[in-house]
Specification:
Layout: E1 4-11, E2 21-28, E3 33-37, H1 44-51, E4 59-64, E5 67-68, H2 74-78, E6 81-85, H3 96-107, H4 112-125, H5 130-133, H6 143-154, E7 161-165, H7 173-190, E8 193-197, H8 201-207, E9 210-215, E10 218-223, H9 225-230, H10 235-241, H11 246-252, E11 275-276, H12 282-292, E12 297-299, E13 309-310, H13 312-339
Parallel strand pairs: 3-8, 3-9, 6-7, 7-8, 11-12
Antiparallel strand pairs: 1-2, 1-4, 4-5, 9-10, 12-13
Helix pairs in contact: 3-4, 3-6, 4-6
Length: 342
């Protein structure tokens, strides 16, 4: 298990007025997927590429498994970090199997039988049957299939970390969604620490355990998707994550955020209360309320905590309380300005 710790990491290109990355400090816990989001020029890709020293930092530290990567041999470092980019970068003169095993061949220490097994293992993992795909060439693959091969290649040597720079950005919407689902499935199986750059907020909310919002080289906010949707630190973050988008909140806020311990219940024995997993979305909970026509759903629990329920009223309250806080803040600010208060 490997975490990535950025410690006041800075990158200044030449004599530019502002650093591309400016004293960024945060930690990506082991086995988590951290999405780097922000407008173009925010410093996302620069930060990502400093992890494997494709770009050298100006100052600060990046600590992986307790070691400062700036003190490591960059070639050796890259052998233990998977790297997936939008352009994939498959070698056109090599077939799929050769493209996947090239990283391990460069690293060394792999026997041919072991490497052949690893190629088939990875093709199965990314959803490409080995018998059908191992001998094909990149020109014989679709964009989505090429991206799967690129992901398999990044996993060949079982790296501790995956760096992904807009890997699905060039794919059509349907294929992109399929690749996102595939990455979620693979991550459940292999559990890597992933740093993922994207411009797509829906992608960030769907894939990320954490989201790091960058702006003009600085880290503006770091948190779980639910934290950014419900408690953005400022208007820029709120606009970026769409915290005023009710449909987005319904899709990405979990049912547990709307649980109400004060619901009167319980239900008559003849009509037991339907249940809802705590990780379900508010949208799923709302649809189940409509489908069952029940006044409430009981939030499933594995411990002895008091029963908590989800109702349409608690969902509406969850969606609106953030807006009430924003409205109160705006009102207080306007009142202060009118009275001359700071």
């Amino acid at each position: 298990m490997t975490e990535i710790a950025f410690q006041a990491i800075t990158k200044q290109f030449g004599k530019a007025a502002k650093p591309a990355v400016d004293a960024v400090t945060f930690t990506v816990p082991a086995d988590h997927t951290c999405m780097l989001v922000g407008k173009s020029g925010a410093g996302k890709t620069t930060l990502l590429r400093m992890v494997n020293r494709m770009i050298e930092p100006t100052s600060g530290k990046i600590v992986i498994a307790g070691k400062n990567v700036l003190e490591e041999n960059p070639i050796e470092l890259r052998r233990h970090i998977g790297y997936v980019i939008q352009q994939v970068g498959l070698f056109p003169h090599m077939n799929v199997a050769e493209n996947i095993r090239v990283t391990a061949e460069v690293t060394g220490g792999w026997t041919k039988p072991r490497l052949a097994r690893r190629v088939d293992e990875l093709l199965d993992l990314v959803g490409l049957p080995p018998v059908e795909y191992r001998d094909r060439f990149p020109r014989e693959l679709s964009g989505g299939q090429q991206q799967r091969v690129g992901l398999a290649r990044a996993l060949t040597t079982d790296p501790m970390i995956l760096l992904m720079d807009e890997p699905f950005g060039a794919l059509d919407a349907i294929t992109r969604s399929q690749m996102q689902d595939e990455l979620l499935r693979i991550q459940r199986n292999v559990r890597k620490t992933i740093l993922f750059v994207t411009h797509d907020m829906e992608e960030a909310l769907k894939l990320g355990d954490l989201i790091a919002v960058m702006h003009q080289g600085r880290l503006m906010q770091l948190g779980a998707p639910v934290d950014l949707l419900t408690h953005p630190v400022d208007d820029m973050v709120a606009q970026l994550v769409g915290s005023d988008n009710m449909l987005r909140e319904l899709r990405y806020l979990t049912a547990s955020t709307a649980a109400d311990a004060g619901y009167p219940g319980p239900f008559p024995e003849a009509k037991p209360c339907p249940t809802c997993p705590p990780g379900s979305s508010l949208l799923d909970a709302m649809l189940k309320l409509f489908e069952t026509r029940a006044p409430a759903l009981a939030l499933e629990s594995v411990d002895s905590l008091p029963a908590r329920y989800i109702t349409l009223a608690s969902i509406i309250s969850t969606l609106t309380k953030g807006r009430r806080r924003e409205g109160e803040l705006e009102s207080a600010t306007a009142t202060g300005r009118a009275s001359g208060s700071p």
